[in-house]
Every structure is written in structure tokens, then in C-alpha cells.
Amino acid sequence: MEHFIEYVAKWMVDDPDAVRVERVDNGDHVAIQLNVHEDDMGRIIGREGRLAMAMRTLLSVAGHARAVDTSLDIR
Q1: What's the pLDDT tens digit per position in 48-62?
Q2: In CATH, what number is assigned to the domain containing residue 68?
Q3: What are this entry's molecular-function GO terms (predicted)?
Q4: Between the N and C ends of the chain, which has fewer C-beta atoms within 10 Å?
């Protein structure tokens, strides 16, 4: 799951080397923390948060297939 988020984020930003993804497991909950350069925050979030919402939706679907609750934190 975190590899997918990293792939998408690196494709969207100007500075792909600054993209960092961390996975935090808490039992049946997985939190993915996406860190990008502050200049790329607007690109990741998108207009009215649509890109961030799309990534969260895809992450939720992937988690649901594995019976895991997921969340995406963008920093």
C-alpha cells in the first residue's frame, strides 16, 4: 500500500527525491504518512483536495481488500 502512495506522489511532484512514506501499524489500523517538500503540497492536495481524496479512497479500497482500516496523513 505504501509503495503505491509513494509511486503516485513521486509522479505528481517536482521534487520526487523529497517524497518520504512511512507506514505505522496499530493492530487492524494502518496509517500511511506522506511527507513531501512544502512547495509540492499544493500538487499533492489538488484543487479542493480532490487528489488527496482520491489517494485516500484508493488506499481505503486496498485496505478493505486486506481487512485493514487505513488512513493517509499528508505532511
Answers
A1: 999 999 999 999 999
A2: 3.30.300.20
A3: RNA binding
A4: C
Q: Backbone phi, then psi, for 23, in 5-degree steps?
A: -110, 130
Pick the closest to residue 22 from 62, 66, 71 (CA basis). 71
Question: Rounded distance, CA 40 to CA 1, Å?
Answer: 21
1-50: per-residue pLDDT in tens?
A: 899 999 999 999 999 999 999 999 998 899 999 999 999 999 999 999 99
Q: How many domains does the chain have?
A: 1
SS3 labels along the chain? CHHHHHHHHHHHCCCHHHCEEEEEEECCEEEEEEECCHHHHHHHHCHHHHHHHHHHHHHHHHHHHCCCEEEEEEC
**Domain containing residue 69:** 2-74
